[in-house]
Amino acid sequence: MEAIVLTEKQKMLAGKAYQAGDAELSKERLKAREVVYEFNNLAPKFIKQRKELLKKLFGKTEKMFYVEPPFRCDYGYNIKIGDNFYANFNLVILDCAKVSIGNNVFIAPNVAIYTAGHPIHAHLRDQEYEWAQPVTIGNSVWIGGNVVINAGVKIGSNVVIGSGSVVTKDIPDNVLAFGNPCKVIRPITEEDKDYYYKNFKLGE
């Protein structure tokens, strides 16, 4: 039986080692950069036009989403966002693998989501070998400013990631987590909701 030869793109999407300098991948990154360049350089009033560009670039969008420019990504088609999504300035998503984001996710400025990794040993790294693992973010997640989310991480639903965190491992549902490396600090409870109603008199 003849062996199946995978393209570098197929290797990338399958989570196998691949060479990022491949012609097909380079062409796709350039195509994404052209769209991102147009997105980032539109005048602030062209909200609808920027939204349409991201609809074409991303693998999946819903009705309600907003991304503040500037924004950067590698390919775009590996990014899937849920409804009521908001990202502040300088979001970077290196989407060599799937990046799946749920509903009601809010991202503060200067957040980076990395699916790509590089060999520690220079012999392979110098040959432009990479690998990629997907990142998943659940529903109703708040990600603070200057957070880095590394390859292969899964963040649960109803989670707050504190600013400046470097997320290297999975984070479960319903927790506050922060630090470098990021770790669970405590559960999020009904007391947290009551705090805001009591101290900020919400709903009055």
From TrEMBL:
Q: Which enzyme type, at the first EC level? A: transferase
Q: Where's the Maltose/galactoside acetyltransferase domain?
A: 9-63
Report what the protein is called. Acetyltransferase
Which InterPro entries does this entry report, sorted A to Z?
A: Hexapep, Hexapep_transf_CS, LacA-like, Mac_dom, Trimer_LpxA-like_sf
Per its UniProt record, what PROSITE patterns does this chain match?
HEXAPEP_TRANSFERASES
Q: What is its EC number?
A: 2.3.1.-
Entry keyword set: Acyltransferase, Repeat, Transferase
In terms of Pfam families, this protein maps to: Hexapep (PF00132), Mac (PF12464)
Instruction: Report the family membership.
Output: Belongs to the transferase hexapeptide repeat family.
Q: Which domain of life is it from?
A: Bacteria
Q: Which SUPFAM superfamilies match?
A: Trimeric LpxA-like enzymes (SSF51161)
The keyword Transferase belongs to this UniProt entry's keyword annotation: yes
Tell me which species this is from.
Pedobacter rhizosphaerae
Query: Entry's Gene3D superfamilies?
Result: Hexapeptide repeat proteins
Q: Name one GO molecular function term.
A: galactoside O-acetyltransferase activity
